[in-house]
Design brief:
- The protein has 418 residues and is α/β, with parallel strands linked by helices.
- It folds into two domains: 222 residues, Rossmann fold, CATH 3.40.50; 87 residues, de novo design (two linked rop proteins) (Up-down Bundle), CATH 1.20.1440.
- It is 43% helix and 12% strand.
- Helix 6 links the parallel strand 4 and strand 5.
- Helix 2 packs antiparallel against helix 3 and helix 13 runs parallel beside helix 15.
- It is globular, with a radius of gyration of 21 Å.
- The relative contact order is 0.12.
Length: 418
């Protein structure tokens, strides 16, 4: 692997960040404002209508996990007619994701350019930047970038806040709770943040990559921006490969790139099991990993989603049943414990998954099915739904291995070819 820098994020391991063709272009020269302006010009001041036209034309979707159209968020905030709030959410709580942290350490000014463009269009004077408390190297990088911009007179102010950490700490409502001085945990919300967010005001809250993509769009124009990617999903996306352990990589690829090519670029054989989308993601069997592409439409055909751009390849002797039990146990401990599905449902689901991994028989699988139905769609946030999605994909895509575990035998760990 050539052409990369190392982002020392202060967690499990250093992340190798490969120099990319767009968002990650020029990062080898350093994260400073002077170096940034050698690649990206000072962004123009766009009226809201012009920014919305650009965003609508190129169909940029949020890169935080949900894939919500960014133009719709901006339009909702604009149409409110009230004083607005802007939040750059770089608070990745997902252990497998490091792209926003890497971006804030290697190309912070591209993120801040995007935030500045949107803030000016919305008439916002103060930009809130939220960074992960469990990754202490991010904060000083962001503060240094803001200091440079303040000195050059950018016309907006910034407030940087660290989360308290944890898997759900980066969830949108958890971030708003923290900004309002309460515990950094999600709560039930009856309206989108763009309608009623921080202190009841229309709040445009998106992750760091989304703002960087917006800056790239404004700088390149719709034609050049759409020169890579697919017709329906133009542009590039950032991926974190193997980010929850040593050897993690952040790279940039055009949307529509094959998963097999992503794996090859990072030194993996393409014919392996992959957890795509992180701990709230979807298990893909080797034949699926070999054929799928990094696009919403292609992945949706097998019930998968790119989510926050997380790709977790498995060793050939690692069993997805055993790993699912471990992940669900972790997720049960990471909930806000403010509603029944999180407080009671996820611990019960974790116990059932552990029983299945231990060979408890078909009763364990039946209990898992029951609990998936119980927790789905009933939580105050998406934490129960995401956890259920992970387990459901195991039952669907690894049914043969699940059946083997019911009999007390792990075919994958034993090296049996199915």
């Amino acid at each position: 692997m050539t052409g990369y820098v190392v982002a020392r994020a202060g967690y499990a391991s250093d992340i190798a960040v490969i120099v990319g063709q767009r968002l990650l272009s020029g990062i080898q020269h350093g994260p400073g404002l002077v170096e940034h302006r050698a690649t990206w010009a000072e962004p123009p001041h766009l009226p809201a209508r012009d920014l919305l036209a650009l965003l609508t034309t190129t169909q940029i979707r949020g890169r935080g996990g949900a894939g919500f159209p960014f133009a719709r968020k901006v339009a909702t905030a604009v149409e409110s007619g009230r004083r607005r709030v802007l939040v750059v959410n770089a608070s990745e709580g997902e252990p497998g994701s490091a792209k926003d942290s890497a971006l804030m350490m290697t190309a912070p000014h591209l993120v801040l350019d995007g935030a500045q463009i949107v803030a000016r269009a919305l008439g916002v004077k103060l930009i809130h930047v939220v960074v992960p408390g469990e990754r202490p190297a991010v904060l000083p990088c962001v503060e240094a970038a803001i200091a440079e911009r303040t000195e050059s007179g950018q016309g907006v102010r910034y407030e940087v806040v660290e989360t308290s950490g944890g898997f759900v700490g980066g969830q949108a409502r958890a971030v708003i709770e923290m900004l309002e001085g309460r515990e950094n945990l999600p709560v039930t919300a009856w309206e989108p943040e763009a309608v009623s967010g921080y202190r009841g005001r229309p709040t445009l809250l998106s992750n760091a990559e989304t703002f960087a993509q917006a800056a790239a769009l404004v700088a390149l124009g719709p034609g050049r921006f759409a020169a890579v990617g697919t017709a329906d999903e133009p542009g590039t996306t950032l991926l974190t490969v193997a980010g929850d352990g040593p050897g993690g990589v952040v790279l940039e690829v055009p949307l529509g790139t094959s998963l097999a090519e992503v794996l090859r670029l990072c030194g993996y054989e393409p014919d392996i099991t992959v957890l795509l989308g992180g701990y709230h993601g979807t298990w893909l069997a080797p034949h699926q990993a070999r054929t799928r592409r990094m696009s919403r439409a292609d992945l949706g055909a097998v019930g998968a989603t790119l989510g926050a751009g997380i790709v977790l390849p498995l060793d050939r002797r690692s069993c997805p049943v055993t790993l699912t039990a471990a992940v669900v146990d972790y997720l049960a401990g990471q909930s806000a414990r403010r509603c029944g599905p999180c407080k009671n449902g996820l611990p019960a689901l974790a116990e059932a998954c552990k029983r299945l991994a231990g060979g408890a028989g078909p009763d364990a699988t039946e209990r898992i099915d029951q609990l998936i139905g119980t927790v789905t769609g009933r939580g105050a946030c998406a934490h129960p739904d995401g956890t259920a999605r992970l387990v459901r994909s195991l039952l669907v895509n690894f049914a043969h291995e699940v059946t083997a575990h019911e009999r007390g035998f792990c075919e994958i760990a034993s090296g049996v070819t199915v």
